[in-house]
């Protein structure tokens, strides 16, 4: 009887470890896709194939995806349906990036406004990579990654609001940078709080 109980316990532990590893891969994959899409937005700004206003609309879409990821990860479990919904949304944003980059509208990558937004989007890329790395190396739990995605959504939302009129002013960038600094501190604190899966 003890052998059966011990075997069942070991199988349950092994199953939980496999499930946790698969979930971590799913979470890291979704964050990696965020990073890739942010990089495409930044590249579009740098080349002039995206205007500041177009990039702002794309950041609005990115904010929605980040909020949905945060909600899906809130309970520490990313279901197949949630993953499929997030992937559909990411596919739609990917198509929007491609469409906006090839629609003939030309941005000025050397304008102060574009330079400000480029810097902010680059910071998004860095923050997303830090979250992705934290999930991969187990310094972030799934719930922590979800909370950090909610913070990323807030930053994306600020960028979207600032770029809505096609111009990001110095004062608007200062507010974005303050939000980015808070998010950076949240990432650091969550990665170093000794909470493990």
Summarize the structure.
The protein has 197 residues and is mainly alpha-helical. The chain is built from six helices and no strands. The chain has helices spanning 2-47, 52-73, 80-101, 112-136, 142-163, 170-191.
Walk me through the structure.
With 197 residues, the protein is mainly alpha-helical. It has one domain. It has helices at residues 2-47, 52-73, 80-101, 112-136, 142-163, 170-191. Helix 4 packs antiparallel against helix 5. The longest helix has 46 residues, at 2-47. The chain is globular, with a radius of gyration of 19 Å. It starts with a helix and ends in a 6-residue tail after the last helix. Mean pLDDT is 87; it is low at 14-24.
Topology:
Layout: H1 2-47, H2 52-73, H3 80-101, H4 112-136, H5 142-163, H6 170-191
Keywords: Signal
Organism: Amantichitinum ursilacus
Protein name: Phage infection protein
């Amino acid at each position: 009887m003890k052998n059966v109980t011990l075997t069942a316990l070991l199988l349950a532990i092994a199953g939980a470890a496999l499930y946790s590893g698969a979930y971590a891969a799913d979470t890291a994959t979704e964050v990696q896709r965020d990073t890739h899409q942010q990089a495409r937005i930044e590249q579009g700004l740098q080349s002039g194939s995206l205007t500041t206003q177009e990039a702002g609309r794309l950041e609005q879409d990115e904010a929605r995806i980040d909020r949905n990821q945060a909600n899906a990860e809130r309970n520490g479990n990313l279901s197949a349906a949630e993953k499929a919904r997030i992937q559909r949304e990411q596919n739609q944003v990917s198509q929007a990036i491609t469409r906006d980059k090839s629609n003939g509208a030309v941005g000025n990558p050397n304008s102060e406004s574009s330079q400000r937004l480029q810097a902010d989007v680059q910071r998004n890329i860095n923050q997303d990579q830090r979250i992705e790395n934290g999930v991969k190396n187990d310094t972030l739990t799934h719930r922590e990654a979800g909370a950090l995605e909610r913070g990323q959504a807030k930053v994306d939302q600020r960028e979207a609001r600032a770029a809505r009129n096609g111009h990001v002013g110095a004062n608007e960038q200062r507010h974005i940078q303050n939000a980015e600094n808070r998010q950076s501190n949240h990432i650091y604190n969550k990665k170093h709080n000794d909470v493990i899966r």
